[in-house]
Write a structure and sequence with these properties.
single chain, Peptide Deformylase, 177 residues, 3 helices, 33% strand, three-stranded antiparallel β-sheet, alpha+beta
Length: 177
């Protein structure tokens, strides 16, 4: 379908709570999903939330195979998740680097829970439920935060570990466009 512009930090749509999807399997929902997939692939994203392309609906997609933005990341199965719910399965937290298509050119250290269960629906309304840990759990939390108007810098506890990629990692080939 189309690669859409990704909204950047500060845009009002990125600060609001997205609305639940009420009708599944519609042509409009399928077209939105295709635009999200096209945009995520074009930007080499690990995930994308509908609000990032200006659509205030509770839809996220994520998946990592071989991603140049995350060369050392474990694989995450491609998933379409509508109206997600997350249940933390541990109180263990791990800090790691994150980036975001809505915060281009920057990275920061973000604490995230290490194990969770997520549930929701696919685009047709079929239920999905999975347990995730590690990078998979991090990606799910990051994308679902977008649905509540939260960007990763708001989760950070130490802003000295937040900055522009080329300043923090001089000489490294880290693509973030």
């Amino acid at each position: 379908m189309a690669v859409r512009d990704v909204l950047r930090m500060g845009h009002p749509v990125l600060r609001e709570r997205a609305k639940p999807v009420e009708q599944f399997g519609t042509p409009e929902l399928r077209a939105l999903l295709q635009d999200m997939q096209d945009t995520m692939a074009h930007k080499n994203g690990a995930g994308l939330a509908a609000p990032q392309i200006g659509v205030s609906q509770r839809i996220v997609i994520f998946g990592v195979d071989h991603n140049p933005r995350y060369p050392d990341a474990e694989e995450v199965p491609f998933t379409v998740l509508v109206n997600p719910k997350i249940t933390m399965l541990t109180r263990d937290v791990e800090e790691d680097w994150e980036g975001c298509l809505s915060v281009p050119g920057m990275r920061g250290i973000v604490p995230r829970y290490t194990k969770l269960r997520y549930s929701g629906f696919d685009i047709e309304g079929n239920p999905i439920e999975r347990v995730a840990d590690g990078f998979h759990a991090r990606v799910v939390q990051h994308e679902c935060d977008h649905l509540d108007g939260i960007l990763y810098p708001q989760r950070m506890t130490d802003l000295s570990r937040f900055g522009f990629i080329e300043e923090m990692f001089p000489g490294e080939e880290i693509r973030d466009d």
